[in-house]
Amino acid sequence: MPILDNKTYRKQLRAWIGDPALTFDLLYSASRDGCTGQAFHEKYNNQGPTVSIGQNSAGYVIGGSTSIAWSSCRNYVNDDRAFLFQLIPNMVKFARNGNGNDVYDNGTYGPTFGGDLNYNQTTFDTVDSYGYGLDVEEVCSVSEPCGNNLLFFSNSYNKSGGYFNTNGCSYIGTNYDANGFNTQTFTGNSDSYLDIEVYAVKQGHLEDELYEKDKPWRKTEINDWSNKTRDKLFDELVSFSTPSQAKVPAARLLLVGSVGAGKSSFFNTVRSVWKGKVHSQVATGTAPHSLTTKFRVYEIRGGHQTPAFRLCDTMGLEEDQGLDVGDMAYLLDGHVPDHFQFNPAVRITRKSPGFVKDPGLAEVIHCVALVIDGSTYKVIPPKVKDKLLGIQTLARDRDIPVHVVLTKVDKVCEDVAEDPSVVFHSRVIEKKVKEISDTFGIQSNHIHPVKNYESETSIDPRVDILTLNALRQMTGSAEDYIEDQLDHMEETDTQMSKMNIKR
């Protein structure tokens, strides 16, 4: 979970910066984006004020704040609003002392503050000891002392033992007031980081205004979040059926998303709803590549109440691997059979094993659901975003409805994490929905906030209700699509009959 998901930390940083209505948007994470200066500057240059935070192996949480936008100018920058801070084990602000050189902005460095805190500054053939502040950078091959600073290094910036063993240095007191602290009490003598995160600091709402109990931003038919409501929604989906004349046993809902977006977790959550207990059928996790390697058409089973829809799972989308958009047309058109083994190095063709040459309406996809992680969607790699947009275009070219399953809303809003039933009252979630609607051009009522079962061991009616509500909207769209296809086929048959042409 991002460090600033903690409401206490956000409140303290707002107080230190001097604005109670600030928001903190995570744009860079070393764990997710790579622990290199290049990755940091690609994400964060020209983004305005920022807060950078590291959590190290000693359990300390330290960081720095600057009102200056990073720009890779390769020079010192004075910032009279910059400061360093510690959140764990103590909440302490370290103000600038007026010596200047408050921030060092270099495209090959991570965020760097004065001469006090340095997460990582390295090169492949030498290690220059500038003693700068907050720096998340590349790879170090040699170790040299950095004056009175600390320097930790590694031969790569992949995690080792769960931490980035950076070449960071820290020496509190050079450009920022020490407040009686030294390296030991400031960092716990550790520059090995569990993660390093950088947040954009923006004007927002007061924290107390982020949740409005009597003013939902979306009107729904959910009157309460009890088991009674859960059962009502469940019964609606159990009784769902496709038009009898279509001869489609079940509507097919295709889940598509980037690696780690929560696609397989959503399926497991749906399965848990039907089982009445937390259930995990599909492998999930945080592996760098997709854990799903086959196209699967899952029937949702739970006692004798199998609904008339299927969830179709695919490989996760990646920048240079994973599912290719060119293959998606075959998936949408029903040419790819259940259990088809994907091969990222080989495109799907008519000669692929099991290729369905003449699929009917029952085999095609009836609704596409883009599964998007609400906590990280702003930093979706450009190539992955292009794939999502490409899939959306393919679906729309076929008149297939497109929805969004917005996952991990509990990581977006702390109020929702504490009580999922406030999701439609949270301004934070409302903002996320609007931003995704604008980014992908999808109407907001087709964007469904959900919370997947992850650490829970028992079901929660509030989680179930969000899941069932999303499914109800998607199956409704799938039904509309099937009816439209029937109308189209009837029109085609009529025209062919008039021309004495047999289908």
UniProtKB/TrEMBL annotation:
Domain TLDc, residue spans: 1-133
Entries under SMART domains matching the protein: TLDc (SM00584)
A Pfam family hit: TLD
Top-level division of the source organism's lineage: Eukaryota
Family: Belongs to the IFI44 family.
Designated name of the protein: Interferon-induced protein 44-like
Organism: Lingula anatina (Brachiopod)
